[in-house]
């Protein structure tokens, strides 16, 4: 009797959460994407990343403002680039491509390599020599990309791959490839699906401005379908040393420790300006110091480890916090995982790392301050 009850208690079974298997964003958002039954879906089950409340950051702003981070560093290769790459690589495969090429500050090359190799294609990546974070280079190499480091910056690398793709049998998978933005717009869908409406503000780091353009597409598409009641203000943030969309002029020598947004001449310049104007927002610059402050704060007070470029969204929010309306809902996009750039984490942690301690109880207790 007791045995039967414990084995088949219907009330207990109903309480078990039913986990829907997530099979990647092409599967999850198929009806919003330019795919057909003929499209071979090359996926690592990217997307469906968490929207996490960040109360310590919300406290800094006060006035009942709610702040969340969209932690896209939890995608399979550790950045939001996977969203665009599952689409771009699937469509390249559908078109019969045998090789893809991209210029990259690191994350695009990691994602292109992983998806291209999974799809049985070659991946050529051009990177600026000496300006790619260690984790990203490690990924591109192990995933099996053919990595070419050039003595020039990202902007020059992009010019070269654009021409290469016109003259050789290689498909360009930078964010000028329209399928990239189609995939990336799904992050906006996920935000609305979780919040039940669009946020009032979206804060986002801006490099080539593909991602801000993609989010705007996604928010608009959902809004037109009646899935949200409003559109957010699109608050884009650039590093002060490479802020062409803030100053209105390309930067010949972009500089910032946030290497993922070290871009002087954004590929999606006009799209970005159109987004800013349509959402009645503004673009602002944050200094490397402000980026590092947000980077450390996210890790040490919220438990969230992102890469420096990602922290620009939170640094920007803190910078313009007086402009946030009372009670507003704000989402900051964290574009990449902190493990991408271990050198920056160690260099900028400002933590007191005690080394060379004798392996004895007393010595350890003393070092602990007891
Ligand atoms: C690519 C990237 C960005 C910039 O995105 P854009 O679409 O180029 O504006 C920001 N942060 C990280 C971590 C990235 O990899």
Task: Describe the protein's architecture and organization.
The protein is α/β, with parallel strands linked by helices. The protein folds into two domains: 46-78 and 180-348, Rossmann fold (3-Layer(aba) Sandwich); 81-179, Rossmann fold (3-Layer(aba) Sandwich). The protein is 44% helix and 14% strand. It is built from 17 helices and ten strands. Strands 1-2-10-7-8-9 form a six-stranded mixed β-sheet, with helices on both faces. It is globular. It starts with a helix and ends with a helix. The model is unreliable at 1-8 (pLDDT under 50). Bound molecules: pyridoxal-5'-phosphate. Pyridoxal-5'-phosphate binds next to helix 11 and helix 15.
SSE topology:
Elements: H1 2-7, H2 10-15, H3 25-28, E1 51-53, H4 55-61, E2 66-71, H5 81-94, E3 99-103, H6 107-118, E4 122-128, H7 134-143, E5 146-150, H8 154-167, E6 171-172, H9 178-184, H10 186-195, E7 201-205, H11 210-224, E8 233-239, H12 244-247, H13 269-278, E9 283-286, H14 288-302, H15 308-319, E10 329-334, H16 342-348, H17 361-368
Parallel strand pairs: 2-10, 3-4, 3-6, 4-5, 7-8, 7-10, 8-9
Antiparallel strand pairs: 1-2
Helix pairs in contact: 5-6, 5-9, 6-7, 9-11, 10-11, 14-15
The site of pyridoxal-5'-phosphate has 18 residues, from helix 11 and helix 15.
Describe what is shown at a glance:
With about 375 residues, the protein is of the alpha/beta class.
Main traits of this protein?
globular, 6-stranded mixed beta sheet, disordered N terminus, Rossmann fold, pyridoxal phosphate, binds pyridoxal-5'-phosphate, 10 strands, Thr_Synthase_bac/arc, 370 residues, threonine biosynthesis, alpha/beta, 44% helix
């Amino acid at each position: 009797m007791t045995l039967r009850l414990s084995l088949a208690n219907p009330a207990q079974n109903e309480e078990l959460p039913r986990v829907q298997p997530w099979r990647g964003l092409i599967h999850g958002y198929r009806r919003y994407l330019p795919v057909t039954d003929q499209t071979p879906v090359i996926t690592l089950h990217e997307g469906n990343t968490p929207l996490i409340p960040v109360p310590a950051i919300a406290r800094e702003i006060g006035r009942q403002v709610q702040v969340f981070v969209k932690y896209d560093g939890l995608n399979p290769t550790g950045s939001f680039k996977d969203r665009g790459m599952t689409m771009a690589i699937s469509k390249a495969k559908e078109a019969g491509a045998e090789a893809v090429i991209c210029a990259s500050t690191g994350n695009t090359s990691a994602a292109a390599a992983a998806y291209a190799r999974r799809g049985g294609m070659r991946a050529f990546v051009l990177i600026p020599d000496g300006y790619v974070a260690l984790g990203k280079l490690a990924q591109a190499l192990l995933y099996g990309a053919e990595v070419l480091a050039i003595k020039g910056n990202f902007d020059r690398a992009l010019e070269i791959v654009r021409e290469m793709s016109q003259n050789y049998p290689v498909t360009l998978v930078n964010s000028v490839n329209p399928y990239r933005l189609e995939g990336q717009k799904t992050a906006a869908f996920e935000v609305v699906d979780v919040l039940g409406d669009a946020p009032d503000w979206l804060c986002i780091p801006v490099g080539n401005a593909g991602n801000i353009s993609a989010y705007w597409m996604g928010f608009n598409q959902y809004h037109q379908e009646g899935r949200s009641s409003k559109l957010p203000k699109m608050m884009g943030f650039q590093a002060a040393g490479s802020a062409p969309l803030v100053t209105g002029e390309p930067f010949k020598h972009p500089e910032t420790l946030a290497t993922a947004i070290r871009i002087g001449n954004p590929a999606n310049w006009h799209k970005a300006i159109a987004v800013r104007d349509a959402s009645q927002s503004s673009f602002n610059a944050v200094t490397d110091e402000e980026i590092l402050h947000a980077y450390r704060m996210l890790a040490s007070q919220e438990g969230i480890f992102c890469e420096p470029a990602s922290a620009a969204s939170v640094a920007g929010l803190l910078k313009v916090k007086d402009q946030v309306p009372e009670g507003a809902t704000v989402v900051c996009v964290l574009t990449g995982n902190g493990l991408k750039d271990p050198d920056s984490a160690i260099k900028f942690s400002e933590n007191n790392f005690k080394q060379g301690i004798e392996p004895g109880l007393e010595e350890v207790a003393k070092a602990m301050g007891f």
